[in-house]
Specification:
The protein is an alpha/beta fold. The chain is 27% helix and 28% strand. It has five helices and ten strands, in the order ββαβααββαβαββββ. The chain has an eight-stranded mixed sheet. A two-stranded antiparallel ribbon has the order 2-8. A hairpin with a 5-residue loop joins β9 (165-172) and β10. The longest helix is centred in the N-terminal third of the chain and has 13 residues, at 30-42. The chain is globular, with a radius of gyration of 16 Å.
Length: 186
């Protein structure tokens, strides 16, 4: 059974984006980018909502950018090959190695988790909130940046009951970002 993994950069006070959806504070340095590349390479599929899909579309043509760095070029290649499932009721179509799902989001992920293949990575707080509330997220990866934003888009949605977690990995990067990976406790 595939695991569903929710992993994002987060401020010390728990936001994945600041006021006005600012994410400039979370840009990875070379070391962290290589780590992200390794994680993306291991994923069986990436699940995205419309907004994150539109943000990440830049990687579909990144290899055409003059002067792109080797680590970014590597990520672009990984991203282009990675199957992506886009959950949206407003998009008419998607591009690249992507398919669109309009309805039954939770049932689609339950079905995907039962199929053979690699783990599923979910990006974006809105889509992840749906899966968290449905009890479908198996692991949480937080890349905690040394910044306090004070407001923005929270990593976790408001919940009616707590989620017990077990810490399975930590790593501190030279940029002072701390990676913490938690597994849902059984």
């Amino acid at each position: 059974m595939a695991r569903l993994i929710y992993s994002m950069g987060v401020s010390l006070d728990g936001f994945i984006a600041g006021a006005g959806d600012a994410i400039d504070w979370s840009a990875p340095d070379e070391e962290l980018h290589r780590f992200h590349n390794a994680q993306a390479r291991e994923a069986g599929a990436q699940l995205l909502g419309r907004r994150l899909y539109e943000t990440m579309r830049t990687w579909e043509t990144a290899h055409e950018r003059p002067g792109i760095g080797e680590t970014e070029l590597e990520f672009a290649r990984i991203w282009q090959a990675l199957p992506k499932i886009i959950f949206s009721r407003t998009l008419e179509s998607v591009e690249g190695n992507s398919r669109l799902v309009r309805d039954d989001t939770v049932e689609e992920v339950r079905r995907l988790k039962q199929q053979p293949g690699g783990d599923l990575a979910v990006g974006g707080a809105g889509l992840a909130a749906t899966f968290i509330r449905a009890g479908l997220v198996d692991e949480y990866g937080l890349f905690v940046s040394p910044v306090v934003l004070g407001a923005g888009t929270p990593f976790f949605p408001p919940l009616e009951k707590r989620i017990a977690l077990e810490l399975v990995e930590t790593r501190t990067f030279g940029s002072r970002v701390v990676y913490m990976r938690y597994r849902a406790a059984s």
